[in-house]
Model the fold of this input.
Amino acid sequence: MSTPATVPGDGRIRRIARFPLTWMLIGLLGLIVVSALTGGGAPVLAVVGAVAAVVVYRAVMRFVAGRPTPEIARDGAGRDALSGAGIGLGFVLGSVLLIAAAGGYSFSWSSGNVLPVVFTAVGAAVTEELMFRGLALQALEALWGSRVALAITALLFGAMHLANPGASLWSSLAIAVEAGVLLGAAYLWRRSIWFVVGLHFAWNATEGLLGIPVSGHVSPGLLTAEVSGPAVLTGGEFGLEASIVPVLLSLLLAVPMLVLAHRRGGLLPARRGGR
Done:
C-alpha cells in the first residue's frame, strides 16, 4: 500500500502557520474583516457578526494554529456567560452607585429602545474578546508567558479606544487597567471566552441602558444620565470608563482573579518553541 507523497516545504509551511504570531495575525485580520462587514449598520448585524466571528476564530485555530478550542466549548457556555455577566453587572452598578452617591450622576426615564443597545453589546463583547483574549493573549502567552501577555494586551486594548469620541490618554490608560487587566485576569482565571464575553456584555449593556456613554459612544437607553462634577469622578463626556471609580474597583476584582489563576496553575511561564 502506497503512502501519500509529501510536498517539499509542507513541514516548513506548517511550522510557520503554527507560530503564535502567524495565527494571531491571520485571526485578527479575519475578525477585522467580519467587523467591517457587519458593523455600522442595523444593530441585528452586530449579532450576525458575533456568530461569524466565532466561526472565523474556530477555523483559524483549527486549520492554521492546529489548536483545540476548549475556551469556546459549547458545554458550560451558558453558565460561564451568566457568571461573567453577574460580575459585570455588579461591577458597573457598584461604580455607578458610588459616583451617584458623590453627586456625579442623576437619572431620569427615557424612551430608548433596549434591543439596539443589547445587540450592539453582544457584537462588541464577542468580537473584542475573541481578538484580545482569544487570539492576542493566547498567542503572546505562548511566547512570553501569561504576565507579559496580560500587560501587552491590556495596553493594546486601551490604545484601541484612543480613536473613540472624547478619548484622551487618561481614558485609554483607565481602560487598559479597568478593562484590559480585568478582562484578561478573568480569562486567565476561568480560561473561558464565554465567561469574559458575559462580563464584557453586561458591562456595555448596563452602561447603555443607563444612558451613560460607552467608551465615548452615546446610545439611547432606558434612562438618561445627567453628569455633574469633576471628570475624574464622572468620566465626563467619555463615560464611566474614564472615571477613577471603576479603575479602583476593577483592581479589587482583578487581583483576586489573578491570585486564583496562579493557584490553579493558570499563569503560565514563557515556553520555548512558541507552541
Q: What stands out?
A: The first strand starts at residue 105 and ends at 109. The chain has a mean pLDDT of 93. DSSP finds ten helices and two strands in the chain. The longest helix spans residues 114-144.
